[in-house]
């Protein structure tokens, strides 16, 4: 169900104008063995994909991860601040546009990627309809999205303690778990070929680590005092017991037109 309590377009515009790059800064430090979720997403893209569009590209982590000689990766986002940072961090070409009305010709793109974009840009059906339009036949949609599993019992305890300080979970404009995704894809002529989950971990050793993590979460209804209480809690645990691992479950979805 869409979240009707929050003016999401206004919240997202302000969040990304004030904190460009913060999502990348957290996810790029979220590790599973030797890699982060952006590298995992990039692994779903075939080496011969010549034209890639990254939707809701933010500060450009996916575009940079996918850069190859002979390949064009276009980063597309609504936020001027995110795109400005993407440019400074070396991503390009970049387009300021709405993911619900893509400025590309029908059938002109080999691969569309998105890191978290499918739970942010709503309604999802409008995005998928545009993705299906711009992909060539046989083209691929590869996306990563937040997930609620896999989580160990200790992860649930730790997240429960944070939740108690925040008095609420982080939210997204769309459902955190994309349900019925296979059917929604099929309705747009896209066939799901992969749906995998992995647990990444973000380590909090210092107050800066804790602040960075909390500032990357969408918490539109949470007062700053509760965010500060969550940071204090993490710092307290890190001081008493050493670095704290926060589980970040991620889902990777791949579909073919
Ligand atoms: C959670 S961030 C993810 C950014 C980037 N993919 C990353 O992983 O760092 C979501 C991004 O969606 C962008 N966004 C929100 N609504 C959008 C829309 N309608 N069209 C294009 N981008 C949008 C925001 O500006 C923001 O950069």
From TrEMBL:
Residue span, Methyltransferase type domain: 53-142
Single annotated GO MF: S-adenosylmethionine-dependent methyltransferase activity
Top-level lineage group: Bacteria
Coiled coil region boundaries: none
UniProtKB keywords: Methyltransferase, Transferase
One Gene Ontology biological process: methylation
Pfam short name (any one): Methyltransf_11
Name the UniProt record assigns to this protein: Methyltransferase domain-containing protein
UniProt organism field: Microlunatus flavus
Taxonomic path: Bacteria, Bacillati, Actinomycetota, Actinomycetes, Propionibacteriales
């Amino acid at each position: 169900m869409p979240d009707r309590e929050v003016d999401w377009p206004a919240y997202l515009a302000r969040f990304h104008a004030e904190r460009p790059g913060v999502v990348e800064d957290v996810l790029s430090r979220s590790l599973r063995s030797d890699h982060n979720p952006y590298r995992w997403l990039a692994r779903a893209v075939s080496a011969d994909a010549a034209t890639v569009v990254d939707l809701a590209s933010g500060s450009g982590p996916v575009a940079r991860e996918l850069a190859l000689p002979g390949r064009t990766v276009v980063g597309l986002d609504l936020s001027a601040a995110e795109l400005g940072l993407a440019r400074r961090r070396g991503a390009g070409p970049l387009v300021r546009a709405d993911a619900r009305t893509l400025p590309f010709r029908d059938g002109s793109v080999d691969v569309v990627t998105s890191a978290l974009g499918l739970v942010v840009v709503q309604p999802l059906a409008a995005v998928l309809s545009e993705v299906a339009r711009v992909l060539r036949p046989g083209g691929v949609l590869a996306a990563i999205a937040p997930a609620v599993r896999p989580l160990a019992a200790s992860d649930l305890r730790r997240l429960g303690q944070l939740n108690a300080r925040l008095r609420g979970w982080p939210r997204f404009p769309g459902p955190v778990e994309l349900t019925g995704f296979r059917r929604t894809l099929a309705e747009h002529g896209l066939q799901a070929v992969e749906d995998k989950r992995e647990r990444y971990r973000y380590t909090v050793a210092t107050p800066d680590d804790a602040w960075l993590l909390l500032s990357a979460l969408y918490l539109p209804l949470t007062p700053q005092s509760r965010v500060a209480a969550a940071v204090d809690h993490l710092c307290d645990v890190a001081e008493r017991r050493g670095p704290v691992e926060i589980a970040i479950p991620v889902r990777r979805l791949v579909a073919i037109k």
